[in-house]
Amino acid sequence: MVEVFVDGRPVQVPEGSAAIQACELAGVEIPRFCYHERLAVAGNCRMCLVEVERAPKPVASCAMPVMPGMKIKTNTPLVHKAREGVMEFLLANHPLDCPVCDWGGECDLQDQSMRFGSDRSRQHEPTGRRAVENKNLGPLVKTSMNRCIQCTRCVRFANEVAGAEELGTTGRGNDMQIGTYIEKTLATEMSGNVIDLCPVGALTAKPYAFSYRAWELKRTESVDVMDAVGSAIRVDTRGTEVMRISPRENDDVNEEWISDKTRFAFDGLKRQRLTHPLMREGDRFVPCTWEAALGRVADAARAAQPEERIAVAGPFADAESLVALKDLFNRWDSEHLFLETNAPELVGQPAGFADLRANYLFNATIVGAEQADAVLFVGTNPRHEAAIINTRFRKAFLHNRCDFAAISPEMTLNYDCVNLGDSLAALTDAKHPFFERLRAAKHPMIVLGSGLLERPDAAQHALHAAHALAKTCTNAAPGWTAVNFLQRQASAAAAFDLGFAATTAAAAAKRPAAKFVYLLGADEVAPAALPADAFVVYQGSHGDAGAALADVVLPGAAYTEKSATYVNTEGRVQRVRAALTPPLAARDDWAILRALSEFAGTPLPYASVQGVRARLAEVAPSFAAPNVQAAQPTALAVAAAVAAKAKPSKAKAKALPAVTLPVTDFYLTDAISRNSRTMAQCSRAFTHQIAESAHEAHIAV
Amino acid sequence: MSWKGAVSQTLRELRLHMCQTGPGSAGLRAFVQTEYPALKAQYPDLPVLVREAAGVEARAYGRFAHGREQRLTLEGLSQQDVAAKLKQLVASSA
């Protein structure tokens, strides 16, 4: 620690920190544009000038390391004058289009010019401002480069965090420009974050440009469900519409980034919504009352034998509705509870998979992933399945020289990764030189993907082989868990926690053909897996693939419309908050199941949301303790013991099919993103690399 | 311990709640470490949900046919006592 004085007040700061950090610790706010605590220091905006005793000139506090006994002055005439000067230079070339700028009201330049700028202008000439051509960065980021103040935050973000190294600067001084030099879209799944980083309105959101003003929005703090990371988000609404989704800070999960799907898929919430209960009559759906719909569902459920009733939960199912669904089916003496990841064949999972939390959670935790120094991916593309966790892996790559290898089909990651082929035999015999590196690593990680669950025998084999491999990692730090399972659906960890999908493959083979199928937001079920005469109920928010199979459709709430609990891939229990009310006759999902239990004559013992949550804690105690509890020593020990007994063999691995990746198109993975126009454009531009026509580009710019 | 024939026909699920470190859960933790593989070998299709969370009381829930549940408090018991009580629970029929 070093002692420095800020405006005469002593503060203790860690050695090597910048003067701006010392000022922040002392509670003095320093204006800045280019400095950002999660990015490298650039020192080019000069807004953070402070006076340092015995320094001849004002110094940029973001680039000035603290020295013992340093005396920083932030409130002197010299500093005021310097700030005014910098502001004047920045504004000399900044267009006066605040009234039509999307960033107006949230703009750092606006705020700081009011607070630190001069109160009058010396500029009288009507022309002479710098003009820069706008760049086409693809369907998400809109550019208005006249407004750019060259802070280079976007360039640093793209290069460091997102790994999209094509964004950079060209030219010097007044001719400096941000861009890709050769016109190119910003092809990264994290591109939306440059919009938040931009301190002026040079980079704004293209999909919802000009649709709101910042001060009209109602803000609701919530959690994302587009993947299993559980990023902290803020849902901004106006009236009955979501206008924008932006990240909140949560250092344990998403720092302050979110993926483009999280940010932009919300327009899917406005299309193809289910608003009324529907009943199939012939080949069309007819709206009906809740009484009629629930009565018909209850009759159909009663008509089936216990073994003939099955339920499938989709990617957005919250813990409350999962536990209500499970209790309801258990009351009907059915154990056939599936998770969509087991679809399309509805085969269940390896015996005992849901028994131990260590089997299905990301045990090293998201923060821990940053420390990794050797990582093996098995059947997963973290960039597509958990883009936020992938940024942590990129950090490990940059800062710990982490080595990566993958047993998967070829994939493009934003760090170096050796491909070991797509056969699980590579994991079992572990001969490749990479495995030597893994065994020698202090923080080795073996990341199993949720796509493996499509084949229960493959999942079991991979799990056992991973534990066998982890046992040989003798150099690992004490308390470090090498075996990790990466979920890709927000509902998965909660469903496993609650003992969902407890049907094993062996039991599934003996199961009679289903007569009553309950799809809780499940859209990936192959129609062929459902017998033609089965009565299918779909409960969910969107009229997508699942609803098309249904005999009765029950409209549920989307994640912005309910207060519900989700568990992320590391086992963190988090709550989403309702920003809106469900549309028309749609209802909270757990309440629909509660009502159905009444109609079926097997009422559930809870009738309030508090009651459901108490029940959640009774089924899995982690729901009562909202902090992540990654260490599960007993479960880990038991999982290792079970794996040691199983002795995964190479011959067995050879008989298994090649590993595949479950997500082929990052932008179109579920009912919400499939109904989003923005995501469709992204899929075209980024996944399929179809360039916009000149006409479209003209409209968009 | 042999688990052959120890589990009743109507038992659908066994849930074990414990603290990762608490002394009250020590017996249940030891039980899970030694007995879980044997129990699972005998009844591979019976879900035995081992759930660890900081500070919870050691407990077991047996879920039987038609969603009937029985709860057992195992806080502070030794591994032998846990085994004996759990045997009783899994053998009962709700």
From TrEMBL, chain A:
The keyword Iron applies. It holds the Pfam family NADH-G_4Fe-4S_3. Residues 217-273 form the 4Fe-4S Mo/W bis-MGD-type domain. One of its GO terms (cellular component) is membrane. Residues 78-117 form the 4Fe-4S His(Cys)3-ligated-type domain. One of its GO terms (molecular function) is NADH dehydrogenase (ubiquinone) activity. GO terms for biological process: ATP synthesis coupled electron transport. InterPro entries: 2Fe-2S_ferredoxin-like_sf, 2Fe-2S_ferredoxin-type, Mopterin_OxRdtase, Mopterin_OxRdtase_4Fe-4S_dom, NADH_UbQ_OxRdtase_75kDa_su_CS, NADH_UbQ_OxRdtase_ferredoxin, NADH_UbQ_OxRdtase_Gsu, NADH_UbQ_OxRdtase_Gsu_4Fe4S-bd. Residues 1-78 form the 2Fe-2S ferredoxin-type domain. Its cofactor is [2Fe-2S] cluster; [4Fe-4S] cluster. Keywords: 4Fe-4S, Iron, Iron-sulfur, Metal-binding, NAD, Translocase. The keyword Manganese does not apply. Belongs to the complex I 75 kDa subunit family. PANTHER family: NADH-UBIQUINONE OXIDOREDUCTASE 75 KDA SUBUNIT, MITOCHONDRIAL, RESPIRATORY NITRATE REDUCTASE. This is NADH-ubiquinone oxidoreductase 78 kDa subunit, mitochondrial. It comes from Caulochytrium protostelioides.
Automatic annotation (TrEMBL), chain B:
Keywords: Electron transport, Membrane, Mitochondrion, Mitochondrion inner membrane, Respiratory chain, Transport. Residues 20-93 form the Ribosomal protein/NADH dehydrogenase domain. It is found in: Mitochondrion inner membrane. Pfam families: L51_S25_CI-B8. InterPro entries: NADH_Ub_cplx-1_asu_su-2, Ribosomal_mL43/mS25/NADH_DH, Thioredoxin-like_sf. One of its GO terms (cellular component) is mitochondrial inner membrane. Gene3D superfamilies: Glutaredoxin (3.40.30.10). It is a peripheral membrane protein. Belongs to the complex I NDUFA2 subunit family. Accessory subunit of the mitochondrial membrane respiratory chain NADH dehydrogenase (Complex I), that is believed not to be involved in catalysis. Complex I functions in the transfer of electrons from NADH to the respiratory chain. The immediate electron acceptor for the enzyme is believed to be ubiquinone. This is Ribosomal protein/NADH dehydrogenase domain-containing protein. It comes from Caulochytrium protostelioides.
